[in-house]
Amino acid sequence: MRLPVRLFLDLKSRSPDGSGTMVLDLEEGETVASALRRLGIAPDPPKVMLLDGRQARLDTPISDGQELAVFPPLDGG
Amino acid sequence: MFGWQDKVLHVNLSRGQVSSEPLDPKMARDYLGGRGLGVRWLLDRLDPTCDPLSPENIMVMAAGPLTGTRAPTGARYMITTKSPLTGAITCSNSGGYFPAALMKAGIQAVIFEGRAPEPVYLWIDEGAAELRPARHLWGGTTHQTIEKILEETSPAARVAAIGPAGERQVLFASIMNDRDRAAGRSGVGAVMGSKNLKAVAVKGSGQVPLADPIGFQTLVAEILARFKAANKGNPPPLRTYGTAGSLPLLQKYGILPTRNFQEGTFSGWESITGAALTERFLKRPKSCFSCPIGCGRVTEITEGKFQGKGEGPEYESIYALGSDCGVDNLAAITKANYLCNELGLDTMTMGGTLACAMELYEKGILPESDIGRPLRFGDAEAVVELVRQTAYREGFGQLLALGSARLAEQYGRPELAMVSKKQEFAGYDPRGAQGLGLAYATSPIGASHMRALTAYTELFNVPVPTDPHSWEDKPRLVKDWQDVFALIDAAGLCILFTVRNLVTPTIAIQPKGLMDLINCATGANYEIEEFLKVGERILNAERLFLNRAGIDRAQDTLPPRLTGESMTEGPARGKVCRLDDMLPVYYQVRGWDEQGRPTPAKLAELGLV
After folding, report:
1. H helix or E strand, kind and range, residue B158
2. Model pLDDT for residues B192-247, shown as the tens digit of each residue
3. Which CATH number does the domain housing residue A67 bear?
4. Cβ of A77 and B314 within 8 Å?
5. Does A69 reach chain B within 8 Å, measured CB to CB?
């Protein structure tokens, strides 16, 4: 399945063209952790990850048609 | 005393007298500092039903025991008074270098009362204080005022001042210190203006006495080492992108307030992010005293019609003057932010009020003839021009100067003001972050994200993630964060550093790292139960002030848009804020009755009777 990915801030550099926007080819049943591995993004420090705008964890399975957004640690204010 | 400075200045502006009194050690232990000392003095010395802009109101500037120390982000102070915007207590927080100078001058707090017959400023030189004439400063911007006072006193002085908006008692006027740091919320600048107090200047070169200086130094070194390790030696995102680094996350959650909270996603979001600000206008990041982060933005716009330079904008200003007004022009947002800083206005209420006016105009309720121009969402030039008119109360600025609650009321549509207790929201739509809705509705100062930023757990996963759409777990979460935020504010530290670095990463939120610093500084030897009780005491003391001012459950509300109109698109589609479900549980968790009043047993437990 194809997973659209959007990487933000310093993580943008992990996409091939540096834009932060890319598409991953994943096998059925793969999780957020495996998507991060394919992107070369270390799980530590913990990232903020959203699948279709909902919080995702490393072990959250990815379904066809979803979009993954990944952010470095963020603060509010 | 250690940690605390034992001198409190008492300034009677009506009589032109400055005296000092010692800080009561028991009060210091029970209320810690800043916001805690402020509410205790307001309860003791002020009629909660008074007119906030009358000489009867008092205004407290108070530092915490860690302000002016080398504790990371030990830069903050609190201004506590009765707010002319909300009619409730307010405590507006700021950093920079002024608060540390106050402590280094040996002063924990300054209490202002009365009204000066002529404009004055207070000059504190290493603890010796005097009132000086300020007629020649009246009318100046915050920047002009600060520059002139530095010339008149000492280049090493630090200054907090009001601008034209505070002089004209705009209900959301700010107090600016060190040029661009703002005690922005709830109209503290209007109170200062009503007292004919143009500025406070302080030079302090002493040290805050510490109970265990070596232990303190060791602890600070450990905290900073952990901070660096957590960031893998890289600058934290807050330094690189500022607080608006989180704007894309809020867009992706679908809770970026847009067009007066009519939507939670903004089509122009990519133009107004922290990354865009860094790329286009950032000259350098800037830190407050003793801060290892540096989220401040020194910026400059070198071309186009919005040229200028200054500091900011931060996230809340970008949401309020940007997406909430439908504006995607980052130069205009930045220019409007500069004007708010120079003229002395709260960017959040300013933006929220403009957004409300835009909706009233687009719905045909507010006629163009009343404004003097069209006012559609997205009109960047109107935003910049109306900021200026508001500060000077010119034309339509007369109405904008009252904030969105009174503006919407004037046109018979109070439900279109996005406020709680007449104060505008922060940049998180609570339909997609339930805890924030409860935090807005129960914040003692009216809507604020800085009384319990549940966004940390609901959106940023710090210290542990919670589902932003769940509501059953939020009453406890909000209560815990409120008490911990009260401690952080009272200690004199910055929320942005403390939540991530000095709070135990468990669901039972415990500020143990903060307590260890306080114990080394003061020698108070708090245990965690007593320490948490201090935070709870501050919250309940503030609630007591509100109750005595006639504010209870009837005012713990959100607009019907947020509780009754579902979000129409994005990840929070179909959601409303479940405030009516959360509020009764929150009161129970707090030990308050059904009307939101602390029970006699709770007051006795906290020593508030």
Report:
1. strand B158-161
2. 999 999 999 999 999 999 999 999 999 999 999 999 998 888 899 999 999 999 99
3. 3.10.20.30
4. yes
5. yes
A41 lies in some domain: yes
CB < 8 Å to B255, chain A: none
* Banded pLDDT at B349 (limits 50, 70, 90): very high
Interface test with A, best of B232, B461, B495, B575 (most A CBs within 10 A): B461
The residues, ordered by sequence, that sit 6+ positions from B398 with a Cβ below 8 Å of its Cβ are none
Q: Domains (ranges, CATH) in chain B?
A: 7-203 (3.60.9.10), 239-423 (1.10.569.10), 428-605 (1.10.599.10)
Q: What is the DSSP string of B287-323?
A: --TT-SS--EEEEEE-SSTT-EEEE---HHHHHHHTG
Dihedral angle, C-alpha B354, B360, B364, B370, nearest 10 °: -60
**ipTM field:** 0.97
Contact B419, B440 (CB under 8 A): no
Would you state the pLDDT for residue B600?
98
What predicted TM-score, i.e. pTM, was given to this entire model? 0.98
Domain coverage including residue A12: 2-71
Number of H helices, E strands in chain B: 26, 17
Closest Cα of chain A to B44: distance in Å? 32
Using the 8-state DSSP alphabet, how is residue B555 labeled? Answer: G
Which amino acid is located at A45 in the chain?
P
Residue A27 lies in a domain: yes
How far apart, in whole angstroms, are the C-alpha atoms of residue B522 and residue B518?
Answer: 6
Pairing between β-strand A54-55 and β-strand B77-82 as defined by DSSP bridges: unpaired
- Residues in A 7-66 with any Cβ partner in B closer than 8 A: 8-10, 45-46, 48, 50, 52-55, 57
How many residues in total does chain B contain? 609
> How high is the pLDDT of residue B507?
65
Count of alpha carbons within 13 angstroms of residue B330, beta-carbon side: 24
For helices B512-522 and B213-230, give the axis angle rounded to 10 degrees. 150
Instruction: Supply the pLDDT for residue B316.
Output: 98
If you compute the radius of gyration of chain B from its CA atoms, what whole number of angstroms results? 22
Structure-token pair, residue B212: 């265990």
A60 within domain boundaries? yes
Measured in angstroms, the CA of B13 and the nearest CA of chain A are apart by: 35
Cα distance between residue B47 and residue B603, in whole Å: 19
Mutation target vs A (from B239, B247, B250, B253; most A CBs, 10 A cutoff) = B253
CB-CB neighbours of B589 under 10 Å:
15
Q: What's the full length of chain A, in residues?
A: 77
Q: What is the pLDDT of residues B472-492, one digit of tens each?
A: 999 999 999 999 999 999 999
Name the minimum distance, in Å, from the CA of B555 to any CA of chain A: 25
With respect to residue A77, please indicate whether it lies within any of the assigned structural domains.
no
- Which residue type does B401 have? A
Q: What count of other Cβ atoms lies within 10 Å of the Cβ of residue B388?
A: 17
Number of domains present in the structure of chain A: 1
Two tokens, residue B514: 């903060």
Contacts of B462 in chain A (CB under 8 A): 73, 75
Residue of A nearest to B228 (CA): A45
If interface means Cβ-Cβ distance under 8 Å, which residues of chain B face chain A? 230-232, 234, 236-238, 240-241, 243, 245-246, 248-249, 252-254, 274-275, 295, 314-316, 428, 449-450, 453, 455-456, 459-462, 465, 467-468, 495-496, 499-500, 570-572
The amino acid present at B88, given as its one-letter code, is A
